[in-house]
Design a protein that fits this description.
236 residues; alpha/beta; Spore Coat Polysaccharide Biosynthesis Protein SpsA, Chain A; eight-stranded mixed sheet; 23% strand
């Protein structure tokens, strides 16, 4: 059954999904790799669509797969699919340009974080709604972190107390994200980095262990295990 999005919602979610995912090994584009028999993108969109605040979802797909992705997601949720770019940043910009009038909160979400619960979508959106211009979900860094030289010699130990691992969805006031992309010069790996360069204050909210990024074969195996667990099933 196709999820009907909330016409009175104030959130648009952008899902850049045009990457190849070379670290996951040879095969289909990363977002179309299978998890539990379905593409990562299908899982991600289904969970986003379950968030009550979501008004619209825009997916930036591989340019050669737009029609296939549109067909794939039609039974899942009401989704606009546009051709992505050569970089993640270009794909986000393409999706942002396709957002309809109305939503003033924009969330950018990785398709590779396929098990992200709808509750995290709502948490990030709520923080923007409460007044923050930019919001990122984070988790504490639990490993000891070493700074090393180019030849792998330890230079020192980094204090992890002030470090956080960043997840998605990342949330923004629409005008803030639009201005950041318009001013972007150097490509960055996340949209929070773009708005930081504009001097925007970025606020953190607690992330979710289930919002792991599926990048390597091990991550995919872990996600397969989590998908079969009761907690994840309850968060879908």
């Amino acid at each position: 059954m196709t999820a009907q999005l909330n016409p009175r919602g104030d959130v648009a979610v952008l899902v850049p999904a045009a990457g190849a995912g070379v670290r996951l090994g040879p095969g289909a584009p990363k977002a179309l790799r299978r998890l539990g028999g379905e593409p990562l993108l299908t899982h991600a969109v289904r969970r986003v669509a379950a968030a009550p605040s979501v008004h619209s979802i825009v997916v930036a797909a591989p340019a050669t797969e737009v029609a296939a992705v549109r067909e794939l997601l039609a039974p899942v949720a009401e989704v606009t699919v546009v051709p992505g770019g050569a970089t993640r940043q270009a794909s986000v910009a393409a999706a942002l340009a396709a957002v309809p009038a109305g939503p003033e909160i924009i969330l950018v979400h990785d398709a590779a974080r396929a098990l992200t619960p709808a509750a995290l979508v709502e948490s990030v959106a709520a923080a923007v709604r409460a007044g923050a211009e930019a919001v990122i979900p984070v988790l504490p860094v639990v490993d000891t972190i070493k700074e090393v030289s180019a030849d792998e010699v330890v230079l020192g130990t980094v204090d992890r107390a002030a470090l956080r691992a960043v997840q998605t969805p990342q949330g923004f006031r629409r005008a803030v994200l639009t201005a950041a992309h318009a001013a972007a010069v150097d490509p960055l790996t996340d949209d929070a980095g773009l708005v930081e360069k504009q001097g925007v204050r970025v606020v953190c909210v607690p992330g979710s262990e289930y919002a792991l990024k599926i990048t390597r074969p091990f991550d995919l195996a872990l996600a397969e295990y989590l998908l079969g667990s009761a907690p994840v099933a309850g968060q879908s």
